[in-house]
Write a structure and sequence with these properties.
alpha/beta, 3 domains, D-Maltodextrin-Binding Protein, domain 2, Arc Repressor Mutant, subunit A, about 300 residues
């Protein structure tokens, strides 16, 4: 039976997890470093397991610590929210933290707010980062949800997932002054604006190139951000694969043109992931809501 866990220890934990440094965390908590260390040790003693691996630098959470931090953060969020409501503060808003791949954020979040009639009751903290970082953020309990691509590492009982939609990556080019494709596969060499090798889309594109037409393309620019690649392609610097949800307007206005190439349309699946642990009340409600949205790409 767990006894004598103090709320201040949980706040200590959240700050230390955020900064991974006892000196910085103790300054923020306005206590000495030794006091912070004793309080974290007292918390771990009450829990019966270590939350932090002190052998690593910077400080890292243990596997059990990752799970507990998520529970602690949600407990404190609900506690503060309900106390404010009991005090009669009807203007208090609950907090939902979401990490998203860069290319998805601009499509997903306007869709969420457009369907969520009471979104003003919540504060959405959205961080657009690369795909690998979104997965780490969820595993470390630093966010409530991530919007990302299919990931084998998250398909286990520790996490829940919901498939939002399927998308297509199209090979596109800017038009020339006559409105025709600026680049053609009949050219001797076609400049390619590509994703980084370790990114989800980069792996998709590179797999296609290895199996098909790698000799036709010369990579001249690399980025993990599809929005930056889109700007480069629209600027006429080369061709590249872009997701359909990010180029609908450009295709309709003929600012981008699809390059005809056999089997070059690549499929990707987009998921919403969360921990299987109970989230705060607002996040649980949002989870159910987002599963009901029609994510169809027009």
């Amino acid at each position: 039976m767990i006894q004598n866990i103090e709320l201040k220890w949980l706040y200590d934990l959240i700050i230390l997890e955020k900064y991974r440094n006892f000196t910085i965390a103790s300054d923020i908590r306005n206590i000495s470093q030794s006091s912070l260390s004793r309080r974290i040790q007292a918390l771990e003693s009450s829990l019966g397991f270590e939350v932090f691996d002190r052998e690593t630098s910077p400080l890292q959470l243990t596997e059990k610590g990752k799970l507990f931090v998520l529970h602690a953060r949600n407990l404190l969020d609900d506690f503060e929210f309900n106390i404010d409501r009991i005090k009669g503060d009807n203007h208090v808003r609950s907090k939902v933290t979401i990490a998203s791949a860069h290319s998805l954020a601009g499509y997903i979040f306007p869709k969420i707010l457009g369907n969520l009639k009471n979104y003003q009751e919540k504060i959405f903290h959205v961080e657009a980062i690369n795909v690998n970082e979104t997965v780490d953020s969820l595993k470390n309990g630093q966010c409530d949800f991530i919007a990302s691509f299919y990931d084998d590492d998250l398909m286990n009982p520790q996490f829940l997932c919901h498939k939002l939609f399927s998308a297509k990556l199209y090979l596109v080019t800017a038009p020339n002054h006559l409105g025709r494709p600026k680049y053609s596969l009949e050219d001797a060499s076609v400049p390619l604006m590509n994703y980084t090798d370790d990114s989800y889309m980069g792996k998709k594109v590179n797999k296609f190139l290895q199996e098909h037409h790698s000799d036709k393309f010369e990579t001249n620019f690399v980025s993990s951000m599809s929005l930056l690649l889109k700007d480069m392609i629209k600027g006429g610097y080369g061709v590249g694969w872009l997701p359909d949800y990010s180029i609908q307007d450009e295709l309709e206005k003929n600012q981008l043109l699809i390059v005809p190439l056999k089997d070059s349309v690549l499929s990707v699946d987009i998921y919403l992931y969360r921990s299987s642990a109970r989230l705060n009340t607002a996040s649980e409600s949002l989870w159910n809501f987002m599963k009901a949205i029609d994510w169809t790409i027009a």
